[in-house]
Structures are given as structure tokens and as C-alpha cells.
Amino acid sequence: MKTLPIFAPVLLLAMAGAAFAQAPYNSLLISPGDELHISILDMPDMDQSPRVTDAGDVPVQGIGSVRVANMSPAEAATAIHDRFLSTHFLNHPQVSVVVDQYATQNVTLIGEVKTPGAYPIATPRQILDVIALGGGLADDADRDILVERHGDQTNPVHYNLSNNGEKAIKEQVLVNPGDTVVVPKVGIVYVLGDVTRPGGFTMSNNESKMSLLEALSNAGGAAKTAKLNHARLIRKLDHTEMQISLGDMQKGKQPDIALAPGDILYVPFSYAKNLVISSSSGIASAAGTAAVYATH
To answer: Which three-class secondary structure state does DSSP give residue 261?
Structure first.
């Protein structure tokens, strides 16, 4: 595995009586085991690089241990600044805190990437960089990707990987050390029967959606011998079946239908051929062995 680039940590200043600058990585909080660099403006002899203890405290020269776990670097600088004041060790300290090294340095990639696994990262990385660590998306990957933050399983971050490259780059989210990136499997709809290219088709556009007529188009359209007014839509989600008049739908006499993953559109052959695969169970069985085509 190639050595990953190490990016310069973000410097966050805490100054008495002044507002703190917003940290670009403010979702990445200090944890036990992190190595910090603490400095005081114009006091180089006070520079120190302690490591956060298992209890979540950091030993600071002159003032003892200060609680910093689950704080951003800016909040930790504020806590250290306030302790300097409360102990009267310094009167007007300008404190800066930098996380030199995070104790948690793996990001976990699971799901539909070419090489799932845990990959070392030293600082927050853009999500496209992280996906690239796993070799990129697999052919059946969903575009809606989840990022589970380290220590927070209740509020995953959603990132939609747009087919538009400029939008995909612009809307990126940061992935922090310790996070888990989940790439779900894309939904598949099936178009079977008397069509040009029967098979399964991935719902891999930007919205991960597909309509019935879009699915029919992906299958190359119905053959001239197809019985358009006797098509059937079999829904996996609720195990229901409905008859569809594709001719009326194509003419705009009936509205198009939004499909759900697992749906099967069956376009009947002529009567003789249709006997072979006319039952719902036969159609479902054919879908299970159908070739799957990526549509993105």
C-alpha cells in the first residue's frame, strides 16, 4: 500500500475576549490518545506536545491536567486559556492548540467498493479520496453513500455521488479518521419478455430512481410482436401484480409509474411463446437469472 500524504493540521487560535475562528474540521473532536501541540504566543518556552490521557485530560505545563476530550481544538484552547486565568499563572495568554496526530487513524470502507477494508488516514479527507482508497465504486454501487461518524451512530451523513463530475466534487463531505463509509448496493429493476435487451437495470442515476418507461427504454423498447396492452408489473415490495397497457402509457393516456428496487416489468410475447413464462413465479424465476446492466 502506498504511503498516504500527511496534510498540515489546522491551527485554531483561542484569544481572551475575542471570538474564535470556525474550524473547517469542527466535527472531528479530540479523543484519548491524540497528540496535541500547545503553544502560547510570544512564549516559545511554553511550547509542549502532550498526549491526551485515557481519562480525556491533557497535562499542561504550569496548570496541571485540563479536560479536553470531545472538544474541538478551538474549545480545548479556550479551556486551557481559562485555566491559565483561573490559576493566575498567566494573565493574557493567547493559546493555540493543534492536533499533531490522531489516535484513531483508520477509515472503514464497506459495501459496494472494489476493495472494502480499513485504510489509514491521518487527517480528514474528502470523500472521493476515501472512496479511491478502496479502488472506487463497484458497478452495482448506489449513488447515495452514508458516512457514520466515529462515536455517533445516530446521525449518519448522506452524500450523493452525482454523475455530474463538477457537482460531485463541489458537494463533497469530509471523512474523519475513525469514520465508516457505507456504500449500499444499488436497486435493480427487471424488464423481461418480448423486449430488445431483457435483463436487470441498475437504478444508478443521480436520484437512484427509474420509471417504467425509462426501464423499458433501457431494455431497448418492446419488439414489434410484443403484446403491449397486456404487460404486467410485479412488485417485490408488497408482492402485488398489476396489468399495464404500455401502448396507452407511451401515448400519454396513462401516467408513467415510478419503479421500486426489485420490480419486474414483463412484456408478453405472442401467445405461443408466452405460455412458457406466463406465471408470476416463472417471471420471478427468470428475473433471478437475468443479466444485469449498469445504466450510469
So the answer is: coil
Alpha carbon distance 275, 273 (integer Å): 6
Amino acid at 53: T
CATH among 3.50.50.60, 3.40.50.1220, 3.40.50.300, 3.10.560.10 for 188-293: 3.10.560.10
Answer whether 119's CB lies under 8 Å from 177's CB. no
CATH of 106-183, one of 1.10.287.90, 1.20.1090.10, 1.10.10.410, 3.10.560.10: 3.10.560.10
* Residue 175 near residue 107, CB atoms below 8 Å: yes
3-state secondary structure of 157: strand
Using alpha carbons, list the distances in angstroms from residue 218 to 191, 192, 196, 213, 271. 9, 12, 9, 9, 25
Q: Give the homologous superfamily in CATH for domain 12-101.
A: wza like domain (3.30.1950.10)
User: Model-level pTM?
Assistant: 0.59
Q: Is 260 helix (H, G, I), strand (E, B) or coil?
A: coil
pLDDT in tens, 67-124: 999 999 999 999 999 999 999 999 999 999 999 888 767 899 999 999 999 998 878 8
